[in-house]
Amino acid sequence: MERVLNSSEAVSSRQEKHTLTDKEFRFLCQLVYKSSGIVLDERKREMVYRRLMRRTRELKVASFTEYCQLLKDNHNAEVDNFINAITTNLTSFFREKHHFDYLEQEFLPSVLNKHRRSDDSKRLRIWSAACSTGEEPYSIAISLLSVLGNNSRSWDAKILATDIDSNVVATAQSGVYVDDRISDLDKTLAQKWFVKGTGNNEGFIRTHQNLQDIITFKQLNILHDWPMSGPFDVIFCRNVMIYFDKETQNRLLPRFYDILTPGGILFLGHSESIQKDSINFEFKGKTIFRKPL
Ligand SMILES: C[S@@+](CC[C@H](N)C(=O)[O-])C[C@H]1O[C@@H](n2cnc3c(N)ncnc32)[C@H](O)[C@@H]1O
After folding, report:
1. By alpha-carbon position, which residue is closest to atom 26 of ligand 1?
2. Consecutive 10-residue runs of the chain (293 residues): their mean pLDDT?
3. pTM for this entry
4. One fold for 7-86 and 97-290
5. Which CATH architecture has domain 97-290?
6. If you measure from the C-alpha of residue 87 to the centroid of ligand 1, how many angstroms do you get, rounded to a whole number?
7. Closest CA to ligand 1's atom 23
8. What is the CATH architecture assignment of 7-86?
9. Domain locations in the chain?
10. Quick one: three-class SS letters along 7-74?
11. In a mutational test of the pocket of ligand 1, which residue from 40, 87, 223 has the highest number of ligand atoms less than 8 Å from its CB?
């Protein structure tokens, strides 16, 4: 039997509410899956309802029937906004701190050591593959520049930060955050790498230019072709595969493997994993995987 989500079940708002039929919900789920790989099910229905209510209000669209029709007719123009509305962008500076400890204390020192006496190119490439609003790539940049220290100039070190959601990429690129985003950060680190806003910008902070200089931000769906050839020394793909089904994950992981340099590291999110016998990654610690040399 067709279940209709009653408006009062989903939102408590004084504004007009729409109903979302099973058929419309199924259409939206299929479109999200096809466009982003994100799997939605009945448990996400209320979340989808809330987020799309906001979008229909912005567009002044009178019903979900009309909104679904708009997605069908005007596919590419609205589908990006639709995906932006559906993605979950939760992130923070130095989230899952043990990854940054591994980067600073194990991986980067070993790379520096290897190049200490050699004249070969000192190239380092790191990819933050679902960077959300940018806290992840800026944290990587802080770790990187902190370890390179005075050697930074002799290194060609760059970070690529990508996400499917064009809104979060724009925020990431601006490098501007409300100041409580860094309230848990070590004070010395905060003073060194963030500029406090004054006047109209009071209450905001901006990431230091030196961090911005080594990061390139781009919108990219990781399930599509990758325009970059790599290889990457490190890939952060954290807390996004959890939204994909096994089939999509199994297609993605070998691609990360192929674009990593031998000895390169893949960091996954806290509840993500790689089946032991599926790919030849070496396990280096909780959600830390290395491509063998
Ligand atoms: C929960 S956030 C994780 C952010 C960050 N990696 C972290 O761990 O803090 C997940 C991000 O994945 C992005 N995402 C979802 N599907 C994607 C896809 N197919 N390609 C690229 N990014 C995607 C979302 O837009 C969102 O910003």
Report:
1. 89
2. 47 65 97 97 96 94 95 87 97 98 97 76 94 98 95 92 98 98 96 96 97 98 96 98 96 96 97 84 95 95
3. 0.93
4. no
5. 3-Layer(aba) Sandwich (3.40)
6. 7
7. 164
8. Orthogonal Bundle (1.10)
9. 7-86, 97-290
10. HHHHCCCCCCCCCECHHHHHHHHHHHHHHHCCCCCHHHHHHHHHHHHHHHHHHCCCCHHHHHHHHHHC
11. 87
